[in-house]
Design brief:
- With about 300 residues, the protein is an alpha/beta fold.
- The protein has helices at about 35-45, 60-70, 90-105, 120-135, 145-155, 175-185, 205-215, 220-230, 240-245, 255-265, 280-295; strands at about 10-15, 20, 25, 50, 80-85, 110-115, 140-145, 165, 185-190, 230-235.
- Helix content is about 40%, strand content about 10%.
- It has an 8-stranded parallel beta sheet with strand order 3-4-5-6-7-8-9-10, covered by helices on one side.
- The chain is globular and about 55 Å long.
- The chain starts with 11 loop residues before the first strand and ends in a 10-residue tail after the last helix.
């Protein structure tokens, strides 16, 4: 397996096993099967070299098609997918990852995460550990695991998670999570770097003022803020102009004062939901059952 090459226009972080990961990638959550291939090709054309998908997005095949059609060597692309809850447990998880690799038209994956902290997550994680040992996965991790579960997984598994992908944005900055992640040498990745605009992230006057100061957009300021905190970001857009805007964040640096000003915007609460809410756990159970019937994520309005 070849090491990923670096691009001078990109900043990288090192995972706790030495693998280097682009700190900015392109996410395909809620990108439909019909437009996914075009969008990934556009993102790669812009310069993105990290693509984040998931079994539950039902667009892995389209991502794989785009990567193949792009002509970009596979080793230059950092490819992430996530194991969905219905595939948890050792045997099912291992089988599902191998199936994802077929759909993505690759013989290895750069990062595989457990998508949710439910069901037999331990069995599924042990499958990721073994696939990692076999060289089929370059890095493994978790997603939506709160601080206690993250420390649990870091402490009681053979291989410590390298990434935890969580809701992180200016109104839910995950400062405690970041402190514990740093302690255990786990990298945070933001699945909603803009909070999907909830609460007016794009219109926030503090962000707008800082954006004007640097002659940048609010989106670029928020992405730069994440990057300077060492948080990986995977913004999603179906428009190439917005992809270009989101990618153009490596030519400026926010001052310490501006970083502190943005830190004061933290509301310390989710803009979406809590995985610790039993009602939400029940919702996931129902959603998993519905997905088994129709394999269609397009009708779902919730986010994770």
């Amino acid at each position: 397996m070849k090491e990923n090459k670096e691009d001078t226009t990109m900043e990288y972080i090192s995972l706790n096993n030495g693998v280097k990961m682009p700190i900015l990638g392109y996410g395909v959550y809620q990108v439909t099967k019909e437009e996914c291939e075009r969008c990934v090709l556009d993102a790669l054309k812009v310069g993105y070299r990290a693509i984040d998908t998931a079994q539950s997005y039902f667009n892995e095949e389209e991502v794989g098609n785009a990567i193949k059609k792009s002509g970009i060597p596979r080793e230059e692309i950092f490819l992430t997918t996530k194991v969905w809850v219905e595939h948890y447990g050792y045997e099912e998880a291992k089988k599902s990852v191998l199936e994802s690799m077929k759909k993505l038209k690759t013989d290895y994956l750069d990062l595989v995460l457990l998508h949710q902290p439910f069901s037999d997550a331990y069995g599924a994680y042990h499958a990721l550990e073994d696939l990692y040992d076999e060289g089929k996965i370059r890095a493994i991790g978790i997603s939506n695991f709160y601080v206690d579960r993250m420390v649990d997984f870091a402490s009681f598994n053979r291989i410590k998670p390298m990434v935890n992908q969580v809701e992180t944005h200016i109104f839910n900055q995950q400062k405690e999570m970041k402190e514990w992640a740093d302690k255990y040498d786990i990298r945070l990745e933001a699945w909603a770097p803009f909070g999907e605009g909830r609460g007016g992230t794009f219109e926030n006057p503090v962000i707008a003022e800082i954006a004007e100061k640097y002659q940048k957009t609010p989106a670029q300021v928020m992405l730069r803020w994440h990057i300077q905190r060492g948080v990986v970001v995977i913004p999603k857009s179906t428009h190439i102009e917005r992809m270009e805007e989101n990618f153009n964040v490596f030519d400026f640096t926010l001052s310490d004062e501006d970083m502190k000003t943005i830190a004061e915007l933290d509301k310390k609460t989710s803009s979406f939901f809590s995985h610790q809410d039993p009602n939400m756990v029940e919702w996931f159970v129902k959603m998993v059952e519905e997905r088994k019937k129709n394999n269609d994520s397009s009708k779902e309005k919730k986010n994770w």
